[in-house]
């Protein structure tokens, strides 16, 4: 083994040597990667970063006999590389080739990423996103907290007495957003969490009334509500959502295997998902999304196939294929050693993607997370015209995403400086409620600094 590693080390030194010679040549010519050297220092981070990552990756890849589907890429938005490539006039074939050469990604992932961006560009070309912003409203309550969850999520039964005060604070923050963007309405609205539909009917109606009075929900281009848990929905709640003009809901089974649902802390069955889905169709919803997770604890291909048979029978309008992420703050991270296996495999993700295509769904947005075992990705698939614009806008960071509520994060764009300011809200429900004026002040400072 030592001899093998020594030979790889020699190989890495050769790579560094070749890169060094190239840098010196470019330095002498007064240019590095097409950019003039201003400092006189050829040891430029931009120049060295990718070669170093490639060399280290190749060292471990050869030593372990393993390749990663995304190669050296660790960021959550590989689509930005493709956007940049198209902006520089490169062809799709050139971008895929460069993806493989520069980042050692597989041809399959490079092609998927490029296909997603082509769809995004087509959708964005018909949407004047520069003229507005998007609003995210966070409702941090759930029937129960899933094993893998790291979002702000509090059991609704235990926190019911705090809901009114939370909605009061939320209303105050929403009114501030309305005042700051006077004369503008959000183009897309996303109500997430948590599970917003875990609110009681009167509280759900109050939430929508608050938003409607500020922005007239039915006038917005797109309105999504996470109704992910079937044990949080009823006919009455679906009718309230429909009445206020919600255009898209998510009913997220994650898996259609009852044993796994119990294992991850969900108090419902696969049949409950089917019944709730049918109820939503009867309530008139024509754009229903479903989320699934590949690689849940103790699930293999057999369980995944069962999930996708059931999903295909229901026929959602869009489908997000997640690869299990083991977040540091999740319960899963604390008990993962108790499971025989967890985490998606490339075969699982490929199977899920193939099923989505067979259902007439095409990939339209993509992102990655650092805590995904196997260096895999999450992909959103949708029927034509059923894509979620908010998902694209938040991934590609194209206009302000203003987020209100506990545990949310706003992204405020400064187009003139090509920079993004992030504003975080406190995650704890009681702290957020007590300190909402501070949350508003944080936003005001960043917004006025644009």
Outline of the structure:
InterPro entries: Coproporphyrinogen-III_oxidase, Elp3/MiaA/NifB-like_rSAM, HemZ, rSAM, rSAM_horseshoe, rSAM_sf. The protein has 450 residues and is an alpha/beta fold.
Strand content: 15-25%
- From the N-terminal CA to the C-terminal CA, the straight-line distance is 56 Å
List the total number of helices.
Answer: 17
Question: Which architecture of the largest domain per CATH?
Answer: Alpha-Beta Horseshoe
GO molecular function: 4 iron, 4 sulfur cluster binding; catalytic activity
Domain Radical SAM core: 127-368
Organism: Anaerostipes butyraticus
Protein name: Coproporphyrinogen III oxidase
Overview of the molecule:
- By secondary structure, this protein is an alpha/beta fold.
- The chain has two domains: 1-66; 129-404, tm_1862 like domain (pyruvate-formate lyase- activating enzyme, Alpha-Beta Horseshoe), CATH 3.80.30.
- Helices cover 47% and strands 16% of the residues.
- It contains 17 helices and 15 strands.
- It has helices at 2-29, 45-64, 79-87, 92-103, 107-124, 156-159, 163-180, 201-215, 235-243, 258-263, 270-282, 301-314, 331-335, 346-358, 389-396, 429-434, 436-448; strands spanning 31-32, 35-36, 133-139, 141-142, 154-155, 186-193, 222-226, 248-250, 288-294, 318-323, 362-367, 378-382, 401-404, 409-414, 419-424.
- A hairpin with a 4-residue loop joins strand 14 (409-414) and strand 15 (419-424).
What descriptive keywords fit this protein?
single chain, globular, 9-stranded mixed sheet, alpha/beta, Elp3/MiaA/NifB-like_rSAM, 450 residues, pyruvate-formate lyase- activating enzyme, 2 domains
